[in-house]
């Protein structure tokens, strides 16, 4: 049993419930990907983008779990709090166990939405190693970064912010980051916007590719670097 993350004794830190074959060279590699984001708006375009990127990860062979919109409505992150809501604990457990993530934010006033940033602030509770194969925060995980706004300027600016936040959380932003201009692209009719769908799928695929690379690395370490 490892020590609890600082500031919150409730945060899941044990690795008891992790796949015991992690790092085993014989493991059948099927990475788990957590897809986070969207807005609370009905017909949210950023949630649609999230689900399309998640589809790309699924097609690439991942098991994907989606936490979207209202799933992320958590109390404002309080570093001094000693207990967390069940929803926050669920988020933390899913992040801890994910082999990769996809994160989508709408552009609000030129930047990340408060909903998403607050959810990411909770990852402070994952500071320090939370299991033998997990370092601080998003260490060792690729994070597919996607931004959706009513114009290109806010979409691109929000993507930059999201990448910065992922870097601060020790994650690996995917090389390709997607932006969607919701004033031009209707994601509720994916067949009409194949280029956007392909870009969002690519982000999901890159997360899975990186997870496979990390799994191979973990397996090679488990065999003393011989594979
Ligand atoms: C509070 C708020 C602020 C916004 N600020 C901007 C902005 O600065 N620039 C922009 O292009 N769009 C802005 N938008 C529009 C959203 O980015 C756009 O509608 C996006 O598709 C929202 O995502 P959603 O459909 O998932 O809710 C704003 C929307 C809201 C609700």
Care to describe what's here?
- Strands 1, 2, 3, 4, 5 and 6 form a six-stranded parallel beta sheet that branches.
- The chain is of the alpha/beta class and 227 residues long.
- α3 (114-121) links the parallel β3 (100-106) and β4 (142-149).
- The model is unreliable at 1-9 and 12-18 (pLDDT under 50).
- It has one domain (32-222): Rossmann fold.
- It starts with 31 loop residues before the first strand and ends in a 5-residue tail after the last helix.
- 44% of the residues are buried.
- It has helices at 45-59, 86-97, 114-121, 152-168, 194-222, and strands at 32-37, 63-68, 100-106, 142-149, 172-173, 178-181.
- It is 36% helix and 15% strand.
- Bound molecules: flavin mononucleotide.
Feature tags:
227 residues; alpha/beta; Rossmann fold; 6-stranded parallel β-sheet; 6 strands; 15% strand; disordered N terminus; binds flavin mononucleotide
CATH class: Alpha Beta
Number of domains: 1
Overall average residue pLDDT: 89
Per DSSP E runs of 2 or more residues, the count of β-strands stands at 6
The run of helices and strands is EHEHEHEHEEH
Q: Specify Rg, calculated over alpha carbons.
A: 17 Å
- Overall helicity: 25-40%
The percent range for strand residues is 5-15%
CATH superfamily: Flavodoxin domain
Looking at CATH, which topology would you report? Rossmann fold
Low-confidence stretches: 1-9, 12-18
Which small-molecule species are bound to the chains here?
flavin mononucleotide
> Strand count, sense and closure of the main sheet?
6 strands, parallel
Structural class computed from helices and strand pairing: alpha/beta
What's the overall geometry?
globular
> How many helices?
5
Quaternary assembly: single chain
- Measure the end-to-end span: 30 Å
CATH architecture: 3-Layer(aba) Sandwich
């Amino acid at each position: 049993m490892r020590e609890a993350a600082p500031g919150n004794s409730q945060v899941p830190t044990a690795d008891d419930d992790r796949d015991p074959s992690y790092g085993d060279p014989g493991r059948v590699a099927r990475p788990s990907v957590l897809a986070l984001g969207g807005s609370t708006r009905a017909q949210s375009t950023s949630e649609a983008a999230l689900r399309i990127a998640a589809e790309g990860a699924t097609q690439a062979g991942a098991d994907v779990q989606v936490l979207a919109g209202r799933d992320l409505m958590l109390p404002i992150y309080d570093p001094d709090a000693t207990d967390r809501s069940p929803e926050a604990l669920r988020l933390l457990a899913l992040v801890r166990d994910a082999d990769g993530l996809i994160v989508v934010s709408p552009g609000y006033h030129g930047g990340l939405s408060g909903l998403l940033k607050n959810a990411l602030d909770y990852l402070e509770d994952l500071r320090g190693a939370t299991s033998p194969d997990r370092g601080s925060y998003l260490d060792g995980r690729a994070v597919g970064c996607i931004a959706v706004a009513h114009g290109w300027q806010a979409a691109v600016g929000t993507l930059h912010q999201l990448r910065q936040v992922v870097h601060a959380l020790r994650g690996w932003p995917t090389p390709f980051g997607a932006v969607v201009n919701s004033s031009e692209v209707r994601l509720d009719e994916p067949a009409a916007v194949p280029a956007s769908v392909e870009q969002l799928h690519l982000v999901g695929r890159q997360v899975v590719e990186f997870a496979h690379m990390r799994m191979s690395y973990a397996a090679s370490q488990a065999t003393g670097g011989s594979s």
